[in-house]
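User: quick one
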Amino acid sequence: MAAEVMLMNEIEATAAQMGIDMNIDFSSIQLPPGENCGIISDDDDVYHDDELEFDSGFGNVIVVDNLPVVPREKFEKLEGVIRKIYSQIGVIKEDGLWMPVDPETKKTLGYCFIEYNTPQEAELAKEKTHGYKLDRAHIFAVNMFDDFDKYMKVPDEWAPPEIKPYTPGENLQKWLADEKARDQFYWTESFVQWSPMGTYLATVHRQGAAVWGGANTFNRLMRYAHPQVKLIDFSPGEKFLVTYSSHEPSNPRDANVRVVINIFDVRTGKVMRDFKGSADEFAVGGAGGVSGNSWPVFRWGGGKEDKYFAKLGKNMISVYETETFSLIDKKSLKVENVVDFSWSPTDPIIALFVPELGGGNQPARVSLVQMPGKEELRQKNLFSISDCKMYWQSNGDYLAVKADRYTKTKKSTYTGFELFRIKERDIPIEVLELDNKNDKIIAFAWEPKGHRFAVIHGDNPRPDVSFYSMRSTHNLGRVAKLTTLKGKQANALFWSPGGRFIVLAGLKGFNGQLEFFNVDELETMATAEHFMATDVEWDPTGRYVATSVTSVHEMENGFNIWSFNGKLLYRILKDHFFQFLWRPRPPSFLTPEKEEEIARNLKKYSKKYEAEDQDVSMLLSEQDREKRRMLKEEWEKWVSEWRRAQEEEKLERQKLRDGEASDEEEEYEAKEVEVEEVLDVSEEVLSFEE
Amino acid sequence: MRPILMKGHERPLTFLKYNRDGDLLFSCAKDHTPTVWFADNGERLGTYRGHNGAVWSCDVSRDSMRLITGSADQTVKLWNVQTGAQLYTFNFGSPARSVDFSVGDKLAVITTDPFMELTSAIHVKRIARDPTEQTEESELVIKGPQGRINRAVWGPLNRTIISAGEDAIIRIWDSETGKLLREADKESGHKKTITSLTKSADGSHFLTGSLDKSAKLWDTRTLTLIKTYVTERPVNAVAMSPLLDHVVLGGGQDASAVTTTDHRAGKFEAKFFDKILQEEIGGVKGHFGPINALAFNPDGKSFSSGGEDGYVRLHHFDPDYFNIKI
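Assistant: Done. Structure below.
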């Protein structure tokens, strides 16, 4: 029998019975369609200005100030210099460069106007040359012509700004105080994103991003204006929001797509830093992502304090600090040919990878660099490397470097791991090779907060899964294999956020096989299947697992929710299902010691909750029975009504059937008739053998 | 019990009908040849040859003497059940979709599809006791609904005709005058094409299945919506148990959307629901194409399903079926 299919309205009804408020007004989040999504933007006046600019045609004019004042004879030379500078940036219109001259002294006035073909070019010119040093005395001050209007309108008299009364903010973490610690999840049919600690829900709109949150209802907390924003990313501590947009070039000769990245302060909505440039500048290194760029462009480091963020560049890594939003020591970290880097999840340590160079003369290199000092903590040279991937353990205790090496013939590759123990003195490195060196690695995952990791390896359609521990029983400093599970239909690993449990999933090609495995006991708790599943997501507390089929498939869209040990709890189907997200939780305030103590005395604590659970289920079954009784009663009413009508019409029906009697006769009567047929009779003489 | 697989049709099944005694099962398919089977063991008894197009539906008289079939060859034929002889052919200008004998078997209601410049229509024909006296004339022709009318059946005492089809609206007509009496409420009614309609044994209520992935139970006299059964796939066929409070829904994704993937993906199950609680209680797998037809044996102890795969599956219930408690 199939699992019970829950209907949305049933869920809502159940939720209502259990006192869960499902009345988050999703329609308010699903914005009405239209140019401005129904939001009247604060920046509307700015937009109007933009339109005006187009009308008046001054949007493409910039004013360059702080030019040298030159006499008539040097006019042409200066004009040539300016033209040279500014024609590099865009196409200056014919007669688009105008340097006014004092009619009396015939000297220039120290400024000029430049008219470009498009406002975009003008904008770019302003970006690029504002602060340009022609010489020591002449630092360009570049403004948009239209901005002058704005500055002119600034009233001469200073008016004290109106002080808004302080409105106490809502408790943005009320959901955490839910007495039953229920987790929340959310599914969407468009693009949204939770902030890393679950305080905010971010949505992307045409004219910017918005975050939502609140105690009981979801309110819009802040808007971040960024026209045509495409991608967003929160810093791990939720302090900053990075938004990204790319714009097709306005000038067809200009092949570069322009990229704008803004970093906002999440609370104030202020732009802390913006980056503009061509797509190429932001597309160095890293593969995949949207339109060739690897997203997020900026990777955050330094744990939850959001202290640093870094970007991979050509031969360098640019590391910024968030206090000043400028490069640490005003310069990037120079690393020749660096192709990849990653931050430790907890410490300001960067692990970077430089591939092999010069046909193997210069070995590939992995090194760990401490910020902000930029000291190299450890480095390791690796030979005949074809590819390399870095995996940090969630506490930043370990770093695993998966290195694909060429075999001697260079025809094939094999894989090994370099395991760094970050927290130990001198950062010892251990090399780990699989039992069968030629196995292909399909997936690798660290146990969150733990010392173990899991690897799926093998070439055949049923690969093996191995578990290793960084602390073998005899020697805490040695890695040891725990077990290998042979022939699993799995291609992805999903550790519970609390560790200990893992889901081995065979997504997509493997039709959604799921195996719930307890790594402490090394035993399979359950195997199940969610046909065609594409995604697996643990809830942040590690109690539930959601598997979903998103709309990459045409059919079967929806999600299942399982308990951590593989019991199917809900099955919900929804067409055009897009995304399933658990609401993340901030890290626990408890110390590891305290957590351990709770785990030890779990029985004591859980008793209270079990009683609560039972109460809830009692309540539900009570209500269920009541509901059923009502339905039955209602039905009985119909049936008696029908019987009455049937009786009334009996005579007429008989007439229609030419007097053939009765409906009773409709009652079916089975008579068993035995028929025996002799098919064939034959006689045969069989001889006996002694 | 293991289902009995009845392979006799070469094309997708379209309709299934038991006679009143429940010993014969009539099947219609797109392969032009309606077939009659023993309802107990699935043995093929005979075929009715003469149609030149897909046969969409059939009905059998109360005394199991006459069979009426409607076909895409634009004819409706009357047959002698026993001999398989054609007794009469009604000709229409467009394919005939649904046929239904009235109480007393003196009238038949026939629907025809929209075709060329013709709109869809409901025809009422008088069926003569002696086939030699049969005439072509229609007692009544009703026009109005947009699109195909997938099913039209008689209401209580033949006073009304209930129709449903592509426009997703159920209508009740006066069978004397052709006047529209009731129309189902748009709010609560089906949202997409109604594919099937089946009456309860006593005709007091009926069940409709629709491509909107639901089936609905209605009161025949007042057209009040009583129950809704929601499933995961478009519903092509519905049936009601005459014995227990169970309804069965059959369907599956669109025949054109059946992909090469696993048969599990298609949901070609016959789903059992509790008629009163509207809860799913089980499913019967087996077909490897959508289910197009369902019928319950009048004794309620077996049912059969016909699929796009060309098979009829005859299921006799296990004893535990009669003790299902939810």
